[in-house]
From TrEMBL:
Classification via PROSITE patterns: ADH_SHORT (PS00061)
InterPro entries assigned: KR_dom, NAD(P)-bd_dom_sf, Peroxisomal_Beta-Oxidation, Sc_DH/Rdtase_CS, SDR_fam
Segments passing through the bilayer: none
Sequence similarity: Belongs to the short-chain dehydrogenases/reductases (SDR) family.
The protein's name in its UniProt record: SDR family NAD(P)-dependent oxidoreductase
SUPFAM superfamilies with a match to the protein in the record: NAD(P)-binding Rossmann-fold domains
């Protein structure tokens, strides 16, 4: 499905990114395997993880090159895309997968913990996508896949930084889709359920958290890769501005915010009228304070 295409996969040195890179190459893509080689909190750096995945791809008969630039800096992100152009002469797809976690309960979260996570997930996706955008526009084709999360789409404890960045990514993806559809450029999101290094750092301090992690350990990163490959392929030319979730052998199309219910008062509203009329009328349709684990509470298939 990916013959002749050149794809950048960020954060591809392990976990979900690794399996996406392997699957892209198996379907014929030339892959730029980008990974800074840091820990799940963004510390340290090593060229080893990216090169190891390249070695795996080449051993299987595929084509790939390693790249160790950071997505969190604009100049470095431009070099990631330039690596594809210099090595293979074009760029056809981008998977924004690179990420870190610095979980902390909201009222204890520090500015550096907030900044680091938003910088990698949201700014990183902006920098890499923007670097590819003009090339996509000029050639009249291209596709983005951004990794979001149900922590942002639904909610989770201790992840204000991560949740904000991941929900921001869905709006970012929609804006790309709207702005670039006339150039035959598509942008979609995947919320992956998969056991990885990053998920492995989720706290397991309560029985509920332990049960959630145990469920996620059954879900391998390889289950995410087929949808990412499909979304970057020409077979998905009619699929744009959507948000999907993958959970083991399940694929979900996720909702996007739309009006649920309304109230009207011809003479306008006062605070007291809102208290007496509007809120009682709307309360039956309030969204519950769910976490991702509450909504996806059943064992994966």
């Amino acid at each position: 499905m990916m013959d002749g295409k050149v794809v950048v996969v960020t954060g591809a040195g392990g976990g979900i990114g690794r399996d996406i890179a392997l699957a892209m190459a198996a379907e014929g893509a030339k892959v730029v395997v980008n990974d800074l080689g840091t820990s799940t909190t963004g510390e340290g750096a090593s060229a080893g993880p990216a090169q190891q995945v390249v070695n795996e791809i080449q051993a299987a008969g595929g084509t790939a090159v390693a790249n160790t630039e950071s997505v969190a800096e604009a100049v470095a992100a431009n070099r990631i895309i330039q690596c594809a152009l210099d090595t293979y002469g074009r760029i056809d797809g981008v998977v924004n997968n690179a990420g870190i976690l610095r979980d902390r309960i909201f009222h204890k979260m520090s500015d550096p913990e907030w900044d680091a996570v938003v910088k990698v997930h949201l700014y990183g996706s902006w920098y890499v996508s923007r670097a590819a955008a003009n090339h996509f526009k000029e050639q009249g084709s291209g596709a983005f896949v951004h990794m979001t999360s149900t922590s942002g789409l639904i909610g989770n404890f201790g992840q204000a930084n991560y949740s904000a960045a991941k929900l921001g990514l869905t709006a970012f993806s929609k804006s790309i889709a709207l702005d670039m559809a006339k150039f035959n450029v598509r942008s979609n999101c995947i919320a992956p359920f998969a056991w990885s290094r990053m998920i492995g750092s989720i706290p397991t301090n309560t029985p509920e958290e332990q049960a959630r992690v145990a469920r996620m350990q059954q879900m391998t990163p390889a289950k995410i890769a087929p949808l990412a490959v499909y979304l970057l392929s020409d077979a998905a030319k009619e699929v744009n501005a959507q948000v999907f979730a993958v959970r083991n052998n399940e694929i979900f199309l996720m909702s996007q915010p739309r009006p649920i219910r309304s109230v009207h008062r011809g003479e306008g509203w006062t605070p007291q009228h809102i208290a007496d009329h509007a809120m009682p009328a709307l309360k039956g349709s309030f969204i519950a304070m769910d976490r991702s684990a509450d909504v996806f509470g059943w064992d994966p298939i």
